[in-house]
Amino acid sequence: MNAPAPYTWPYVDKPLRQAVDRQLDRSLSDRDGSGVIGEFEREFARFVGSRHAIAYSSGTSALHAMCVAAGLGEGDEVIAPAYTFFATATPFAYEGVKVVFADADGWGNLDPAALPGLLTGRTRAVIVTHMWGNPCDLTAIAAFCRANDLLLLEDCSHAHFAAWGGQRVGTFGAMAVFSTNQKAITTGEGGLLVTDHDPFRELALLHGHYNKRSFKEISPDAPYYRYALTGMGLKSRMTTLSAAIGLDQLAKADDIERRRRAVLGQFAAVLDGNPVVSLANVDPERGANGLYVLGLRFHPEAATLSAAEFTDRLVQHGTEFDMPGSTSVIANEPLFHRPDRKMPWTTAPDVEPADYPGAQRFIGSFIKAPLFGYPGDEQAVTHHLDTLVAASKDVAR
Ligand SMILES: Cc1ncc(COP(=O)(O)O)c(C=O)c1O
Question: What is the pLDDT of residues 359-376, one digit of tens each?
């Protein structure tokens, strides 16, 4: 089998080039929401089904804004997934919030069963990540947050097209963040915070947007309007070129979704009944996958080798399967265990590693590949499918 060309992202067509070209003539820096930044934010809010969206230079900076807008700081605790990309939780640690970690369920998502045991008098919020596009059990998690008067925050970076019980993720809690770097909807680098709540929107604007915008868009009666000139001290706006790319991508969202769901459907059909690997997607009756990656679950009991060895074998045949490394258990990292947020790295605390068996089980069996679906990806899809089927046959017990 000949290896296909490597997956490239995003698909750069003529309309995308023209969008960037037009923006070069229009503006390279918007100070308020009157230009492409505002247009992109409005379209993104519509895409998610939220009242407001605010654009940032990265998902990480949007998460930071979310932490500050939620009013969380030293003395507060947030419950976060032990298994996620680090930026779900690092902005909280940066602000001195104690991050308390919950183990993962069978999808690598925060396990709602872990929540009651982690609740203290200082818990203010729960943040979830819809890992690899699979929506969390938002019914159980939202009920827990309501019952305990906690803010529910969502990291939807993997889950741009995901829904739970027919409702789009990003609309279940107080605020949500979507990273838009190498994601289903991309801006190159970037991120958005979405919310239905006006005060959260205004507080998020103070965190990273320009004062001209704050003066215009924050209600003069709000107690925090006094901060409009300086904001909260940082600047983390999205560039206009990123917003122009994002608008182009949103105009193609239906097409991106249709193509990616079709690829998932192809894998589902071919893997049906395969004892070695199955598609790692939540039951479509419960939730829709967010279309970030192609996620597979390896079944070691049905195979003669381990998930890592199986993945190596797939890679040797020119595929892009891998077992994620940069996303892992973050709970034992020293950043989350400093008694004082200003403590220098040189005196990083020794951390007695805690065990997260749910997360480890998921990590040990999860294999992913790019979720192909751009025009021209057909050969790559066929090659990945054929390799998977042949390798599964070779290693089946
Ligand atoms: C789950 C999750 N949260 C947050 C981020 C951070 O986003 P960014 O890289 O845009 O800062 C990422 C990045 O990939 C992510 O995967």
Answer: 999 999 999 999 998 888
Give the structural domain span for 20: 14-251
CA of 112 to the centre of ligand 1 (A): 22
Q: Ligand 1 centre from 63 Cα, in Å?
A: 9
Write out pLDDT tens, residues 144-196. 999 999 999 999 999 999 999 999 999 999 999 999 999 999 999 999 999 99
Domain-embedded: residue 3? no
Cβ-proximal residues to 337 (8 Å cutoff; 6+ apart), any chain: 349, 351
Q: Is 154 close to ligand 1, i.e. is its CB under 6 Å away?
A: no
Q: Crossing angle of helices 59-69/198-206, nearest 10°? A: 120
Residue 91, domain CATH: 3.40.640.10
Which residue, 220, 251, 282, sits at the end of a domain?
251
> Do both 50 and 180 map to the same domain?
yes
What are the helix and strand counts (H, E) for the chain?
12, 15
Predicted confidence (pLDDT) per residue in 226-274, tens digit: 999 999 999 999 999 999 999 999 999 999 999 999 999 999 999 999 9
